[in-house]
Amino acid sequence: MEFSRLIEILPELNTAFFQTLYMVGVALLVAIVIGLPLGIILYVTDKGFFLENKLVKSVAGVITNLVRSIPFIILLVFLLPLTNSLLGTTIGPTAAAVPLSVAAIPFFARIVESAAREIDKGVIEAAISVGASPWMIIKDIILPEIKPGIISGLTITTISLIGFSAMAGTIGGGGIGDLAIRYGYYRYDDLVMYTTVIVLIVMVQVIQYTGDFIAKTVNKR
User: Fold this and answer.
1) Which range has the worst mean pLDDT, 19-23, 32-36, 109-113, 180-184?
2) Contact 180, 19 (CB under 8 A)
3) How many CA atoms lie within 13 A of 196 on its CB side?
4) Chain mean pLDDT for the chain
5) What would the DSSP string read from start to end of 26-66?
6) What is the pLDDT of residues 4-40, one digit of tens each?
7) In angstroms, how far is CA 198 from the centroid of its own chain?
């Protein structure tokens, strides 16, 4: 009976799985495009660094901390008007990708900043002494040095986004979380609930293992 029920929900589970991948993928792309430069800015504009700028550092830091301090479930509701104005709807994977992206940007930016702080300042000072431009320092020293940290940060961010995407199911965001709530919770379907939990666990384990492997591979230290 349970096996036949599992076969029955397989199409919906498959759809929910790819919806989750889509939401997380979009948010991760936005995190890389915006969060990576933001993390570098937070690092290089700090006191004592080659692009020191107290105003930029303060504004970027406050905005980053402000967004990070809001629980994701509240952020979901708070950004509903923005999502609606951008997409004309607040339901579905694309709509859920908006708050996921907003949450991912500061999260990943702080990870990038922390990774950059592990760089030996002497290396940067040596580059400055030979006349390297700020862009050259960022491109040829900072980014290559923090590559393992970036990969690890992307792994952590991806896993966090999977958890956040499950929460997005509470407002009709689609994905595995939505499936678990509609069938597992509202209809008391334990099989669906257990299946979605197993799928999420497998996803997280695969991503963690892959991320750790890539980070070790690119780490030349």
Assistant:
1) 180-184
2) no
3) 30
4) 87
5) HHHHHIIIIIHHHHHHHHHTSTTSTT--HHHHHHHHHHHHH
6) 766 777 788 888 889 999 999 999 999 999 999 999 9
7) 21
22 C-beta neighbours (distance < 10 Å), count:
17
* Cα 30 from Cα 50, distance rounded (Å): 27
Return all residues near 55 (Cβ < 8 A) that are at least 6 apart.
Answer: none
Structural element, H or E, at residue 23: helix 2-30
Which residue type is seen at 50? F
Identify residue 21 by its one-letter amino acid code: L
Q: What 3-state DSSP class applies to 69? A: coil
63 vs 65: CA distance, rounded Å? 6
For residues 220 and 142, what is the distance between their CA atoms, to the nearest angstrom?
A: 14
The packing angle between helices 147-168 and 93-116, to 10°, is 150
The label of the residue with tokens 């890389």 reads 32
**Interhelix angle 147-168/190-218, nearest 10 degrees:** 170
**Which tokens go with 56?**
């930029």
Q: Which amino acid is at 70?
A: I
> pLDDT-based confidence at 220, cuts 50/70/90?
low
185-195: b or e for each residue (b if 16 or more CB lie within 10 Å)? Answer: eeeebebbbeb
Ordered domains of the chain (ranges, CATH): 2-218 (1.10.3720.10)
Q: Given 3-state DSSP classes, what are the helix, strand and coil percentages for the chain, each rounded to the nearest 5?
A: 85, 0, 15
